[in-house]
What we know:
Helix 11 crosses helix 12. By secondary structure, the chain is of the alpha/beta class. The protein folds into two domains: about 20-130 and about 235-270 and about 310-375, Periplasmic binding protein-like II (D-Maltodextrin-Binding Protein, domain 2), CATH 3.40.190; about 135-230, D-Maltodextrin-Binding Protein, domain 2 (3-Layer(aba) Sandwich), CATH 3.40.190. It is about 35% helix and about 15% strand. The protein has helices at about 20, 55-60, 85-90, 100-110, 150-155, 170-180, 190-200, 215-220, 245-250, 250-270, 275-285, 290-300, 320-335, 355-360; strands spanning about 40-45, 75-80, 95-100, 120-130, 135-140, 160-165, 185-190, 205-210, 225-230, 235-245, 310-315, 370-375. The longest helix is centred in the last third of the chain and has 19 residues, at about 250-270.
Amino acid sequence: MIKRKFHSHIVPALTSAALAAVLAQPATADVDFGSPGSKVDLVIGYQPYYTESWSGVVNNGKQFWKKYLPSGSTAKFEIGLQGSVIVNAMTGEKQHIGYMGDMPAIASTFRNIKERGGTDMRIVAVLGTSKQQCNVFLVRNDAPKFNSGTDAVKWMDGKITSAPHGACTDRFARLAFEKAGVKPKRYLNQNIEVITTNFRAGKLDAAAIWEPTASKIVKAGIARRGASGEDFDALDGGFMVMLNDLISQRPDVHKGWLEAELDAQLFMADPANSDEVAALAASQTEKIDKEVLWWSLYGGYPKNEGGGDVKVQLDFIVTDRVQGLLNDATAFLYSLPKKPAAAAKIRDGGVTDEVARQIMKERGLSSPLAIVKVQKM
């Protein structure tokens, strides 16, 4: 049992620049998670407003974790509007397990450095990878009709564009601009609220944003979908991060939580559960219709708007494909002026997915666990 009290608090939405700006947080005393077999009280940072990490939404709603943790254990799920918020909470050991996108997950693995917080965090599992979850371009409604997503990005040459900088959207936007050979007039650093407002006001030509906000904006008629990672062979990903104190002190909890995570991913992948998954997401978010939430994970878009058959691939472990994503994303973070990554590659031990691999082997499964494909509503 953890011997520290935790106080819930409201964390304001941050732009993804916070990923780079809030690097140094004072470390607190180590948490005592108790001895193996004893009950444990966990605080989980998760992102119901980021579709690729919805296994956390499922685990929260279905409470699969109760099947695998010692009797009497508790799990308090706290919403982080961006992964950087969760990383900061974990740096202060106010949260113990985090569900987040690739960029904050990578940055978290470098927080063991004293100047960056001094808290050891590890990537322990993969929530999923995709080409159209974080990597989505929207264009203003009166933009031309494009034959392809590549044409849509070429149209952005000399235009006013935007993305939350330092996030997976930023990496995708810069890659797409480079591959399409374009240079926007302005490439602004804006959060999802400002992007939505500026599309409404006609002050923005295009923006890169993640799901489910991308589908929310499209379904509300505020902007159109223009392109995705499908057009540029660009992956994005979601990852589970865990405090190394929890890993080392409670191997039973480490394994138990990953068992529940595997159950959640399999549940999410079953087409028969799509309506329930959307309902769970609706119950844990505000001001997003259930239909929009369903569409963000299971709905399809035309190919000329960056649509593709695969919405999410549930990898669970760091395969060669996932490692390639981590390598590219880490190099990108290291290239930024404030360097959220302290090196061009993740440090040794920053990825610790051996237990996830063990669980898959014990269940006779292999990666990917499943592929979530486009469904008819």
